[in-house]
Amino acid sequence: MALEQLITTPVEDLDTPCLLLDLDTLEKNVEYMAGYVAERGVALRPHVKTHKSPVFARKQMAAGAIGVCCQKVGEAEVMVAGGIEDILVSNEVVGRAKIARLAGLARHARIAVVVDNLENVEALGQAARDAGVTLDVLIEVDIGQSRCGVPPGEPAVALGKKVVQTQGLALRGLQGYHGALQHCSGFAERKRQYQVALVDLKRTKELFDSSGLPTEVISGGGTGTYRFDVESGLMTEIQPGSYVVMDRHYRSIGGPVGEAYEDFECALFVLATVMSIPGEARVVTDAGLKVLSTDSGMPAVVGLEGAEYQAAGDEHGKILLAPEGPQLRLGDKVRLLPSHCDTTINLHDTYYGVRAERVEVIWPVAARGRSQ
Ligand SMILES: *Cc1c(COP(=O)(O)O)cnc(C)c1O
Questions:
Q1: Mean pLDDT throughout 216-220?
Q2: 223 in ligand 1 pocket by Cβ < 6 Å?
Q3: What is the distance between the terminal CA atoms of the chain, rounded to a whole angstrom?
Q4: Does residue 235 sit in helix, strand or coil?
Q5: pLDDT tens-digit readout, 106-149
Q6: What is the number of the ligand 1 atom nearest to the C-alpha of 224?
Q7: If we measure between CA atoms, which residue out of 193, 310, 306, 298 comes closest to residue 252?
Q8: Could you tell me which of 6, 342, 43, 24 has the C-alpha nearest to residue 221?
Q9: Would you say residue 70 has pLDDT above 80?
Q10: Among 30, 114, 239, which residue has the most ligand 1 atoms within 8 Å of its CB, making it the best to mutate?
Q11: 176 lines ligand 1 (CB under 6 A)
Q12: pTM, whole model, 2 decimals?
């Protein structure tokens, strides 16, 4: 059966396991973030590594985003093919083939990339000149995650000067992104650590200014820090990704009041079927590791008080039911809330977009597996 035949089908009748997307919630999240950022005079450049779909990206653009971030050249290719015209690859791009693809893409869209290495700057410049394009460049500064990025201060300035001297490249400013900080538990603690990370970025920006290097773009931030990012007075654009659909882990990092991070709601679920009932208060579903990532913990079982999901292999997931709570029968459908949206989405080919409990749209996870 062609997938489109399933449009208008009630969710309960969908075969499983499959990836459900609550469209009302998705749209609400997109609007809320866009409004929050616009009101405070900062630009929004959402990260599409979460959803991997140009359809979502266009919704984000329609709500006011100035462009998107991609993590991989392959994602950027899918976005450009899907009509997105302004992309920051917020990651280092290394290796002849990838760099040539990036430069080629700049014939079709405005492309920026981050750098943290001199040789890489030379290679990017050469590829841009060969393709007859200009690549925008941000210097990535390590603001405490100890992953990519040059150290703050003088090393960033030295690399910035190199970019300015390189034909084919146009220095635009800085990127400072701290991934681990996004997930830091406790609102006050996250804010405290953010202020610490910001000191290095601010100092580097000031050095850029006094060295005559451009700082028209200071880019960074994500779902966990977006409030601090827009208040920082430093970031000109922010890069949140997960907020579009959220996940169990992000909901648990703590808000300004309470333990739940409630700024955005969960829009993404895996629908599973009870395929075996081996014992009391224990059922087995058809949703295992191949449809649900567990790198950030177990998914939550939606709407079943006290029930807990337990990984049971590639194709199976157990649900331990609270003895006094609701029970399940063979063939029942269960909704699971993924613990980590990005890695779960990348396991699926298809989104089933749902409104009022019926399938409204079926969209491909277009950049699924585009990890090169
Ligand atoms: C993942 C990522 C983001 C978005 O982070 P979320 O936590 O999903 O909002 C932003 N910028 C960079 C560089 C990233 O790698």
A1: 98
A2: yes
A3: 32
A4: coil
A5: 999 999 999 999 999 999 999 999 999 999 999 999 999 999 99
A6: 7
A7: 298
A8: 43
A9: yes
A10: 239
A11: no
A12: 0.97
